[in-house]
């Protein structure tokens, strides 16, 4: 299956945030006066949804729930989730709930996005070298990719559904993110051209762990993905690649869309 990696030259707007881990990307300074301004999506209707205050309240809830990494909390506060959901759902954008994005797919709830991002930062390799290049399986609407782009040096994100791939492109373009690369392809095959990855994260749950993901994970890297447990119900799985093999840790129950192969 051919995989297409379109370029995505852009940058996030400058914003003050806590210190990032070593190796993590920082937003660039704004363009000089006279440069063309990026197209900004219209502000959604609904009281307060275009303000930092409502995101601030979401971040405080995340911190109260146990998310403690400053870079993750800053990223969750910076990225405007309401820009990634349908206009009819903007009033629910900062609730801790998943929302439909079309084609039977969903945007993950903020708490699970933050939880999985924080888990990535706990990898042995990341602790010593910072979060370098990562691979996201299942771009969806692009929200998680935007968050990851704030804490990682480089993000490759792959989506099998062409319509969602294009939707993510439209959602991300106004944010002008330079370190997120969108790929149309079969996520079960990973993306070998970008390997090895310091971390791999999946937004879809399968019956087993694809061997390609394990092969493309760097030594000392970490994979975080939902996976079917012995009873068929999904659990959050953390896999660390060590010199002696793969170390698996089973965490809490989760509920993600199913992992599928092919491009549609």
Task: Quote the distance from N terminus to C terminus.
Answer: 12 Å
Number of E strands: 9
- CATH domain fold name of one domain: Rossmann fold
Radius of gyration from the CA trace?
A: 17 Å
Class per helix and strand makeup: alpha/beta
Query: Which consecutive residue ranges, at least 5 long each, have pLDDT under 50?
Result: 5-48
Kindly report the average pLDDT value: 86
Strand order of the largest sheet: 5-4-3-6-7-8-9
Helix percentage: 10-25%
* Number of helices in the DSSP assignment: 7
Which CATH first-tier class of one domain would you pick? Alpha Beta
- CATH architecture descriptor of one domain: 3-Layer(aba) Sandwich
- What is the H level of CATH, i.e. the homologous superfamily of one domain? Vaccinia Virus protein VP39
Q: Could you describe the largest sheet, including whether it forms a barrel? A: 7 strands, mixed
| N-to-C SSE string, H for helix and E for strand | HHEEHHEHEHEEHEEE
Shape: globular
Top keywords for this entry?
264 residues; alpha/beta; Rossmann fold; seven-stranded mixed β-sheet; 25% helix; globular
What does this protein look like?
The protein is built from 7 helices and 9 strands. By secondary structure, it is α/β, with parallel strands linked by helices. The chain has a domain at 112-253: Vaccinia Virus protein VP39 (Rossmann fold, 3-Layer(aba) Sandwich). The strands form 2 sheets. Strands 5-4-3-6-7-8-9 form a 7-stranded mixed β-sheet. β4 (154-159), α6 (162-172) and β5 form a beta-alpha-beta unit. α1 (52-64) runs antiparallel to α2 and α2 (70-78) packs across α5 (143-151). This is Protein-L-isoaspartate O-methyltransferase. Its EC number is 2.1.1.77. One of its GO terms (cellular component) is cytoplasm. Keywords: Cytoplasm, Methyltransferase, S-adenosyl-L-methionine, Transferase. Residues 1-40 are annotated as: Disordered.
């Amino acid at each position: 299956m051919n995989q297409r990696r379109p370029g995505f030259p852009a940058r996030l707007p400058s914003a003050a945030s806590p210190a990032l881990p070593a190796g993590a990307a920082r937003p660039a300074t704004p363009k000089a006066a006279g440069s063309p301004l990026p197209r900004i999506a219209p502000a959604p209707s609904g009281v307060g949804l275009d303000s930092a205050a409502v995101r601030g309240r979401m971040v405080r809830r995340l911190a109260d729930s146990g998310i403690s990494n400053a870079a993750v909390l800053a990223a969750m506060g910076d990225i405007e989730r309401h820009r990634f959901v349908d206009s009819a759902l903007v009033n629910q954008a900062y609730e801790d709930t998943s929302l439909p994005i079309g084609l039977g797919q969903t945007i993950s709830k903020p708490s699970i996005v933050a939880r999985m991002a924080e888990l990535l930062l706990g990898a042995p390799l990341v602790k010593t070298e910072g979060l370098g290049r990562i691979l996201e399986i299942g771009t969806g609407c692009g929200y998680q990719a935007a968050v990851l782009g704030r804490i990682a040096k480089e993000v490759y994100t792959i989506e099998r559904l062409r319509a969602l791939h294009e939707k993510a492109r439209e959602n991300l373009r106004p944010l002008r993110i330079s370190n997120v690369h969108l790929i149309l392809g079969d996520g079960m095959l990973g993306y070998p051209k970008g390997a090895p990855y310091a971390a791999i994260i999946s937004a879809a749950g399968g019956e087993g762990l694809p061997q390609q993901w394990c092969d493309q994970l760097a030594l000392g890297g970490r994979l975080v993905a939902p996976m079917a447990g012995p009873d068929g119900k999904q659990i959050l799985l953390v896999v660390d690649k060590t010199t002696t093999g793969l170390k698996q840790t089973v965490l809490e129950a989760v509920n993600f869309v199913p992992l599928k192969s092919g491009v549609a």
